[in-house]
Amino acid sequence: MNKAKELDTPLQSLGQARRAQLLKFWQRFKRNKLGLLGLGISITLVVLAIFAPLLATHDPYEPALYERLTAPGAEFWLGSDELGRDIYTRILYGTRLTLFIVLLVILTSAPIGLLIGASSGFFGGWVDKVLMRITDIFLSIPKLMLALAFVAALGPGIVNAAIAITLTAWPPYARLARAETLAIRKSDYISAIRLAGASRFRIIFRHIVPMCMSSVIVRMTFDMAGIILIAAGLGFIGLGAQPPLPEWGAMISVGRKFIFDQWWVAAMPGIAIFVVSLGFNLLGDALRDLLDPHLRNR
Amino acid sequence: MSDVLAEIDNLQISFKDENGVLRPAVRNLSLTLGREKLGIVGESGSGKSLTGRALIGVLPSGAHVSADRLVFDGVDLQKCSNKERRQLRGNRMGMILQDPKYSLNPIMPVGKQIIEALRVAKKMSTAKAREAVYQILEAVQIRDVQRVFKLYPHEVSGGMAQRIMIAMMLVREPDLLIADEPTSALDVTVQLSVLEILDTLVEKRNMGLILISHDLGLVNHFCDRVLVMYAGRVVEELQANKLYEAKHPYTKGLLNCMPSINGSLGPLPVLDRDPNWLN
Predict the structure, then answer these.
(1) What does the pLDDT look like over B149-165, one tens digit per residue?
(2) If DSSP codes are grouped into helix, strand and coil, which group holds residue B277?
(3) With a threshold of 0.90, does the pTM exceed it?
(4) B146 to chain A: closest CA residue
(5) Which of the four, A39, B113, B149, B272, has the lowest number of CB atoms within 10 Å?
């Protein structure tokens, strides 16, 4: 007897629909080969950071003075630096510092910017004016200069560098969140939740901030590259991570002295910075193409 | 509980124009509302929605409101702090907006939104809130509530969205419900079922209802009493079933503009506006 295939329950079919949506998102993402490359680089970075001790061939801190400034080869894959430390190992451990700074900055600056921008856009009036003028002031000073000034005030160190970068990184988020909020706050569903008696606090946190998230996420991925560069810049000047920490910017700074004879000391961490920021940029590009409704149907 | 739920006396709502001159949108409006179904009809821009919104306290920015009396169930709304008004909103009075598709947060599952509306008022365990949501969704005749609970607004139909919106406002069991053209975005069959739901719920819970509408026929069937508004003022007040015996020329004009299935096939008459109506 031919029995008809039993239908799924509505709840199951809903789950299937959601999974299909996710799959479709992934397929759209896959079409962008460069974005895929960016995602690959970002994932590799995270994997390397997690498994750094397993993948390392040497100790990142122990000097070996007889082997200083060795050219890249079988013993030192990417050469050794002025204290005979393996550059490959140090770059590997440096991924942890890079990720640490990037995450710290992103996780602090995006919420600050979101909060300031959303309140500014939602309340309007003098709140908006004051908050936006403060934002303008921060935006008008070059980022690295401002970060420099903050680090100089706070004292050098990796956490202070992250704080300093945070203080320079929030204004674009505030601008972005304000623009989004202005578009959202007049919409009917905000009226509807006001009619239900929601407080302003609740409206901002539960109904406006989530709507800003997609553009903020895109902005974040773009920002990661910039943050890596500023962190490296601070390290290069000597105000970021302090020796003997294997921070990429600081490593380049050391290599500067040997740049004509032992190019690998500066070049290797430089390449690392280049590849990683390129990866984040490509990822950000791909995400923007996917999440931005204006670009979606092109 | 008194019989009079809301009382508005001499309400004025005006907006400043570019030169800073106040332009009235609602003038000298007075109404009393018991636990009944009151219809407000009139053209676009005659101040129907503004009147409803003034009562509930959510007006567009820049609106200037004044009234001799603005009382809801014994509470003087003009003397209330923002916080007290907010507690009245939702708890004691709710409002259903016109376009259901835009009145729901597009990135929040509908069940969660109804829970939001519940939690605004009081803390509640998730399980309990969920149970309440299932119940209210069933009350507005939605099947498969567990599935609908998890749907996003773009995944439901317009009629469903409107019913969800109604559920969201009814879940707090307000005493007064203002329905601002609740059915104008819906097709005729869905309109009827939505109105039926409203009707039974209003009856069952002994609520007051203000139905704002363009649709004279609908108001005639559905309401107890009708206010006809023109240019920000009430021109006539009628028993709903006597709507067709209206005396005011404006109401008559509106009625004449309705095509009738047995009527002539010629063009419908156009309203003649008499400036004297404003005096």
Answers:
(1) 998 888 888 888 888 88
(2) helix
(3) no
(4) A11
(5) B272
